[in-house]
Amino acid sequence: MNRTEGGTPDDGATRSLRLARVGVPAALVVAGIVLLLVGGDTATPIGIVLIGAGPIVLALNALLRLSFADTEDRAGEERARRYFTRHGRWPDDS
After folding, report:
1. Which of 28, 58, 63, 64 could anchor a disulfide with 54, C-beta 3.0 to 4.6 Å?
2. Comparing C-alpha atoms, which of 13, 89, 82 is closest to residue 2?
3. Geometric angle at alpha carbon 89, from 84 and 91, rounded to 5°
4. How far is it, in rounded angstroms, from Cα 90 to Cα 85?
5. How far apart are CA 20 and CA 29, in angstroms?
């Protein structure tokens, strides 16, 4: 991921990630609705499946993001513990 000098993701990367996180599930739901409107023996069940898959993909993405955030928190805590072991105080103490 590209980062700016401040350590935050740049706008291009943020937009493309947001598009992938929200756009793909939205596209699945829209495709499912289109298939429902078209109708037919095959299109209707596939449309129902796609409409159900959209929220599932969105939920899995949210769980994956929470997992990554938890991993980053644990790594930060581990760094703080190593700092405490070396210096006898927490890194944010004055």
Report:
1. 28
2. 13
3. 75
4. 9
5. 14
Contacts of 3 by beta carbon, 8 Å cutoff, 6+ apart: 9, 10
pLDDT in tens, the chain (94 residues): 444 444 555 677 788 888 888 999 999 999 999 999 998 899 999 999 999 999 999 999 999 888 887 788 888 888 888 988 898 888 876 5
Here the tokens at position 72 are 């980053």
Give the 3-state secondary structure of residue 54.
helix
User: Which of 22, 26, 53, 49 has the alpha carbon at shortest distance from 36?
Assistant: 49
In sequence order, the β-bridge partners of residue 3 are 9
Residue 92 is encoded by which pair of tokens? 């944010």
CB distance 33 to 41 below 8 Å: no
CA–CA distance, 20 with 65 (Å, rounded to integer):
13
Give the pTM. Answer: 0.61
